[in-house]
Amino acid sequence: MGNSHSTSSNHSKDKQLLRKLTEVREIFDLADVILISLNIRNKIVFINKKGLELVESEENEIKGKNWSEIFVIPEQRVKIERLFNEYFRDNNVKGKNLIVPMLRKDQKKAYIKWTISALRAGNTIVGLLLTGKNYSKRKKIEKKLYKSEEKFRKTFENAAEPILWADAETGKIINCNKMAEKLFQRKKEELIGMHQSALHPQEEMAYYKTHFKKVVENKGRFELEGQIKTKNGEIIPTRMVGYSTELENKKILVGIFHNITEEHATKQALEESQEIYKNLSEQNLAGIGIAKNEEIIYTNEYGASLLGISLKDVYSSKLSDIIKKFIHPKDLRKVRENFELLDSGIKDSVNFQVRIRKKSGKKLWLETLIKTIIYRGKKAYLLIYIDISNRILIQQQLKNSEEKYRILFKKSPESIILSTIQGKVIDVNPSSEIIFDINKDDIIGKHYSKAANFTNKQIELFSQRTQNLLNGIKQEPLEFKITKLNGQVSWISFDMALVNLQGKQMLITIIQDISERKKVLQRLKESEKRYRELFESSIDGIAMTNLDGRIIDCNEAFVKMLGYRKERLKNLTYFDITPQKWHKKEDEIIKTQVMVRGYSEEYEKEYIRKDGTVIPISLKTWLRSDNEGNPSGFWAIVRNITERKKAQKKLKESELKYRHIFKNSPFSISLLTLDGKVIDCNKATNTLLTVMDTDDLIGHTYREFFSVDEKDKHLIKMFDNKFRRVIKTESSSSFEFPIHKTLTGGYIWVNAHISLLKIGKKRLIQLIIQDITDRKIANKKLKKSERKYKEAYSRSNFYKDLFAHDINNILQNIQSFIDLISMKVNELQTSGEIEEIFSIVREQVIRGAKLVSNVRILSEIEEREMILEPTNLMEILNNSVKYVQKIFNKKEINIELDYTDSSEFVKANDLLGNVFDNILINAVRHNENSNIEIHILVSNSTIYGEECFKIEVIDNAKGIPDEMKSLVFRRGYNDRDVVKGLGLGLSLVKKIIEIYDGQIWVENRVKDDHKAGSNFVVLIPKAN
Question: How far apart are CA 571 and CA 551, in angstroms?
Fold first, then answer.
């Protein structure tokens, strides 16, 4: 019985299917696509002419056969049949798409794209309708395109420079290559979907957004230097080259990045070298000159002093004359050869050492650098020469010392033991074998304490001294008795030192007889030479005194500074040439600084010249010691600071003028450090900006200006950004904003001007703020008056037209249905038919009420300021869904709401419900399908760099033509034939969304097919 019932049911369904197909047979044959209907057993019930042409068969040859045997290659038949059975079993087929290969009669493969739809009788599927398009040509094109894309992809992926693609409209990254992953230290999956500005430091994001927007608008190419930020926070300087283009009808930005860290390092090194050059020139550490052809066009004073002549003598001489006159004869050839290398272009710089003979006859060694440069458009020489006489002398002494050490190690009468820090012996000299009466091979590899019978106390002492050496503690040699391995007792002097040999730290132990030690000490004393500073080469005064302060020597600069003859100065003390008021201070400096640590800080005082005039000077004093290390006197470097003092006086006078303006200005004037700390401000600052006194403000940050009133705290972030931009660009910035005054309870409008100020070497921020409240109020009143007049006039016309048209339509519809009821009241058979007519009348009444509500809301929006607060988005959406289902309760409406979190809040107000009410009502009202499908999808997104929710309302209504999409949101739009009834509702929706700083637009549900339905997209910023 069960099988009989099933067969009967199938036959019934087949009849229903045939009946449906017979009605549309002629239409199907005219279609330009393949149309095939299957019964629930996958047998072909109908095939149109296009399908018969594809298989090259007659209809009677095809009907009744299994569809997959004809239209599916054998290896995929089982899979396709299983899929079709699932469709029937689930009773759920909604426009499924498949691309299936088939074998034609000529055995050539063809690709058919099938769209599968259900054929129903009531709610039961009785068959399937397959709509097919020959996809073979497209498959070939896709294959070729894939190969082309594969070549491009490999080139793109293996490019040597990082490359990013970004959607020009959203700013989001849509593709990147391997080098981009490496540069940004992010995987491709992380980069794709990020906003391009997020790859730059936060303070530069706004700049890049604006710049890229201009590039897209102008369809241009760009090249700029900036910074990118890696995943771990590293900031890397880059040069970006890119352009705007189109890909698959989408505007994209292509950016190629070049890491210019090395260029920046080179630039920094150049700046450092320029700074070094400047310091060298200013501090007289090197002679510097520039010569063009034979003419000397620049030299500093130190350069002239090295030759022992004046600047005038240098400038009046030719370069060749200077060389002949002062270069040592044996070095002339070397000088000529180096100039030939420069002139021939073989080298652009040369570096060599040369001897000179000063005018006084004194010989010096100079380290010389000569470089070809372009000076005022012509080739010239830059000459830098440094006195290395002392270095040459020290090198010679070092060379002699090293030679002495090698000889000393082998020939020294002292025992010298080289060991590791732990004491393992590496080498000993011959004297060690003699002193300790041991064989060299017996001690190497063992601890040095095995060289004799050292006591435990002595061995502990050796370890302690080694540790002291490692800690940098200075130690004197030890003298003690030892017992040699042969039993002989001797007095030795024991000393240790650390040395570096081949990159390793080693220990040298020196052991000697006391008599030999004394000889060595005597030899050291005899070898010591008196070290004398270069007096005459300094432009600063240098003087030497004994402990009583009597001058025992001085240089020429010191003599000129005081106007005495040198012999006369040697009879004076530094007290004699110092005014009485400085004596106590100088005694204190000598006592607490020079005698304690050997030198003083630089300090200022005055000298009395021979002519009685008093000059200001600055000096630094050092302690001199004799050969025994005992204090023997002082020496000082003295500089005349008369000109500096005059400049300081002028600066002080200028500061007094500025201070007067600063204090008495009606504007608030503040000086701040770069991190925003107030270092000075005038009285107007505390009266205008805060309740704090001026003295209380100093030392605090500007952020405290705007922390008095809670409403002003948002200004802190604005000022942070403004300050960063001014510091970075070294430009100024002016802007206006309101600030609340706690004492008065109101607020004032002010104009702020921020600029960068340099005082000495210190950069500061100057902030000037002016009260512009009166001006603002006057302007605001004027603009408000004009705006109100225009808005009132526009609204009166708009509401007049609106009610004249829409209310009239609604009343006309109600009148028509009342007339219909009057005519057919006797013909209506059931309460259902009556209810259907009344439901239409009811809908028109609801439509009229909604129109009145929309007009009221629109008027309210335009007349008062909207206050935004956190609003539960899901609660609003659920209420709108319930509202629409209630007013259209006679229609079959399926609304699916898809979201992840029910506690999602947006910045909105009570008008948000009107937005979704209007969108959903339009989705239902303009839907002619018996089954109305609406899908609401909520997801995360961004708008202008701010986090927001993206709400998509997707329907299966008749859709909106592309040329009308931009018009449906306009107020008063009334092209009723095209988009009936959308005018006021959507203009209201757009107005409300813009109040929330959001966006709204409409898209096709199916790309390039507006008739398949619409997708209304809404972006609303998230609530904090």
Answer: 7
Provide the CATH topology of domain 541-640: Beta-Lactamase (3.30.450)
What is the predicted pLDDT for the residue at 736? 87
Taking 50 as the threshold, does the pLDDT of residue 530 lie above it? no
List all residues 6 or more positions away from 791 whose beta carbon is below 8 Å from its beta carbon.
862
**Per CATH, the architecture of 412-522 is what?**
2-Layer Sandwich (3.30)
Q: Which residue has the tokens 């699932």?
A: 86
Residue 166's contacts (CB-CB under 8 Å, 6 or more residues apart) are: 172, 173, 174, 196, 212, 252, 253, 255
> Rounded to an integer, what is the distance from CA 226 to the centroid of its chain?
8
Which of 196-200, 251-255, 797-801, 890-894 tops mean pLDDT?
A: 890-894
Nearest-5° Cα angle at 410, 405 to 411: 90
Residue 308 — left, alpha, or beta (φ > 0 → left; ψ -120 to 50 → alpha)? left
Show Cβ contacts of residue 468 under 8 Å, excluding neighbours closer than 6 positions: 475
Two structure tokens written together for 858: 């629109």
Name the 3-class secondary structure at 676: coil
Residue 131 has pLDDT above 70, yes or no: yes
Q: In what order do the strands lie in the sheet with 425-428?
A: 425-428, 415-419, 504-512, 489-501, 478-483
Which contiguous run of DSSP H or E holds residue 609? none
Count of all residues that appear for the chain in the document = 1024
- CATH superfamily for 647-771 is PAS domain (3.30.450.20)
Q: What is the CATH number that goes with domain 164-259?
A: 3.30.450.20
Strand 747-759, strand 733-740: pairing: antiparallel
What type of residue is 484? K
- Which pLDDT score, from 0 to 100, does residue 797 have? 58
CATH of domain 2-140: 3.30.450.20
Give residue 583's Cα distance to chain centre.
58
Give the span between the Cα atoms of 386 and 364, in whole angstroms. Answer: 10
Helix, strand, or coil here: 6? helix
Burial class (CB in 10 A: 0-12, 13-18, 19+), 202: exposed
Alpha helices in 56-117 (DSSP H): 59-62, 67-71, 77-90
According to CATH, the superfamily of the domain at 264-392 is PAS domain (3.30.450.20)
Q: What percent of the chain has pLDDT over 90?
A: 21
The CA distance from 401 to 395, in Å, is 9
Tokens 């030192």 sit on residue: 497
Chain mean pLDDT for the chain: 80
Q: Where are the beta strands (DSSP E) in 583-659?
A: 603-608, 614-625, 631-640
3-class DSSP state of 388: coil
E strand or H helix at 865: none
Tokens of 841: 């009348």
| pTM (global) more than 0.70 | no
Based on the number of CB atoms within 10 Å of its own CB, is 959 exposed (0-12), middle (13-18) or buried (19 or more)? Answer: buried
CB 999 within 8 A of CB 992: no
